[in-house]
Amino acid sequence: MSTAWSPVFDERDVRLEQDEPLYNGFFRLHRLTLSHPRFEGGRVRIQREILDRGDAVCVLLYDPVADTVVLVEQFRAGALGKLDSPWLLELVAGMVEEGESAEAVARRESVEEAGIELGPVFPITGYLPSPGGCDEWIDLVCALIDSSGAGGVHGLDSEGEDIKVHVIDAADAFALVRDHKLSNAAAIIALQWLELNHGRLQTMRVSDET
Fold first, then answer.
1. Structurally, how many domains does the chain consist of?
2. Residues 65 and 32 placed together within one structural domain of the fold
3. Containing domain of residue 175, as a range?
4. 207 forms bridges with which residues in the sheet?
5. 45 phi, psi to nearest 5 deg
6. According to its UniProt record, which protein family does this protein belong to (predicted)?
7. Cα dist from 106 to 144, 184, 202, 206, whole Å
8. Active-site residue, 159 included
């Protein structure tokens, strides 16, 4: 049996009646009134509040020579009341500015958040982390690095960043996922991808072209 899938409908099947701005700050909130077809015929009319928080890039930093990954630890207000500690272990990440490519964001943020210059950068996947109420798109990429000098605390004071760098053996990072020690979706996805592609990436070098 084929496992191929494609959606029955596309964006042309959606009728947008109203896009009402509700809040415009660092993030934006708006209310959509729209209708779309039902799978069994007819249409349904709905209202949805959508958070527009901009798009982002998350980058998995991997050193194929040392077989280590670099993760960053920082405070996340959204984790308050959800976990014992709101300091999360994550990938380097940043918001996309107008006209920026995913690779440009990855290179900029890796210097700002981890003090690391990147070698080759290549895509892992792209996804919507919470499409029921947020239109954020995340480009997930991997970059080859030299982790020998990595460490310390980084981030921009102007943005209230206080970011601690961790260099972790790849095997230990995979164990963090298996042992449910990570609560960041991008890091979980990226490390699972790295475990699947581990042998291939270990043959690469920071100077390699992909």
1. 2
2. no
3. 56-202
4. none
5. -105, 130
6. Belongs to the Nudix hydrolase family. NudF subfamily.
7. 12, 18, 21, 15
8. yes
